[in-house]
């Protein structure tokens, strides 16, 4: 019998999901199955009694049968509700836990793994694939266990009644399962393809939604629709293909089980006519044969369906297996005390490549001290933002060492390191929620007054108070939309609120109006007090007061010095100033 090859690890992961509620789940499923199977067994015996009652004109048998069926029905109704509740609740809990665990895990995934995932695919794994996993527990496993209990109990009772007929039925059942086994592999393949197609579909959808502006700008509607349509058609083809396989399988199953009945009726009527067996027993045997055929039929098709659902499990597992940021560091502490004499940040001969072949940063060395502002300028793609991401330990340098407070960042956990750093990114991200909540992310537990004071220092307080809901204005999906300059100032307020000793500011490249620019400039100037500030500047005004300026060109430091020194050197910086930093 070609039994399916199980991928143990996927079954193990499936078990891990339900483990905390396993007892509740399995009691519910087995209880449910036993209750249902016993109803059919009782019906078979009552059916036997009734046929015999008719044949022998013994009406007491008839009366007994009606009583038994009625009592059994009432008890079964109650039990089915209780057991059904038990397993449904345990599955819902397990799936909720799985979703939370996956999202939690996603947050820990290292940057270079996240870079390779599209958010649409990620959403598809968290929603569609976990839904598929859910059907394993709500549908396939309960049906499988029910089929086995119903089938095995029918087989035993049938053997007790007449073992010869039982053997015939079992032989036909074995044929059924063999046929189903032959279809298993193609089902699994179709399942894999369908799940990954769902991922592609989501990816395309996110492109349509997130890239809406660009799509409209370049009149890409037709292209996007065509792309979406192609994936959708592909999905349709795959689903139809799987449906065809299922159809062929179903009809073969139907044919074989019909043959089974005919076989029993032919053999049975012969045996009754020869008085080897009574009519009632044949009636009961037909009922038991139904249970047995049901088991074989279900085993075949359920095992194939389970293969399909395990494809979903596989995609969920892949997500769980992506490398995460390491979290256990031996020393793990940063000694941040008083005013350090040593440089706060030391970058010694650092090189870095996202992919092995192309170095994005080469031999970068610089230092930044307390109360200092170090500025980086340079053309687009010269590696400025990448340098900040290295300081935040989103990626590790391929060569050289980066130290913060005299400790190599390699030895510090990302959490401990990031506690010391306030980062205002180039594309500041505001979360769904109120402005107050968004600023408070800088330091959870800050009072409203502290939030407002930080906003004031970031020159955000005034525009926020002008909004009709002030600090309670809701941002994000369906909420209020802020301008680029306003978003940057809210992000700056977060940095002001945090107690971090280091501030990394990746100035927005988007053109800010003069007022916004001036306000941000004033904010940055006051930010440097009692802190170490590294700023990536796209505006001349931001750099002029910097302690030291580094000019990056294609990943290496081309020039360094103060504003005046660099101007008099008449090099790259001077040329940039002439063009007023249109980098
Ligand atoms: N996640 C990534 N994976 C691979 N390559 C990347 C990634 N992020 C950036 N790069 C590449 O690294 C180089 C430096 O990018 P970076 O974002 O550091 O430039 P930048 O100086 O900040 O530019 P800009 O002024 O436009 O913000 C670019 O060639 C870019 O294509
Ligand atoms: Mg950048």
From TrEMBL:
UniProt-annotated location(s): Cell membrane
Lineage: Bacteria, Bacillati, Bacillota, Bacilli, Bacillales
Sequence intervals crossing the membrane: 22-47, 67-91, 144-161, 167-184, 252-272
Topological relation to the membrane, as annotated: Multi-pass membrane protein
Domain ABC transmembrane type-1, residue spans: 73-308
GO MF terms held by the record: ABC-type oligopeptide transporter activity; ATP binding; ATP hydrolysis activity
Keyword Cell inner membrane: no
Name of the featured protein: ABC transporter ATP-binding protein
Source organism per UniProt: Paenibacillus graminis
